[in-house]
Amino acid sequence: MSNNTGNTILAVLAGAAIGAGIGILFAPDKGSKTREKFKDGFDDAKNELQNKFESASSQLSDKFTTAKFDLEGTYEDLLSNMSYKTEEVISFLELKLAELKKQNAKLQKNTDIPV
């Protein structure tokens, strides 16, 4: 069965190739014009593909630039927030240190024994 399928596919491809060849032979234009049409079609497809590539490249570049600025802004915001949090932590630690110094001073007064 696979042999019949292979033969059928081969026959269809051969028929398509023969049909295309006959179509070119009986085309109303000269061979040079037909080749020029193929070349023009190829050039148009190449130019369209190149334009799409350049457009996609430009869009991608714009997105990376935007992402870079967003990342830089986020980084600066993060540093600023960290700076404020650091100040809060330092203030808290200074208060605790002052409390500990007071407690230590009370303990030293209570434990002062004359020698």
TrEMBL record:
Pfam families: YtxH (PF12732)
UniProt keyword list: Membrane, Transmembrane, Transmembrane helix
Transmembrane segments: 6-27
Organism domain of life: Bacteria
Keyword ATP-binding tagged: no
InterPro entries, A to Z: Desiccation-related_membrane, YtxH
Protein name as it appears in the record: Gas vesicle protein
Lineage: Bacteria, Pseudomonadati, Bacteroidota, Flavobacteriia, Flavobacteriales
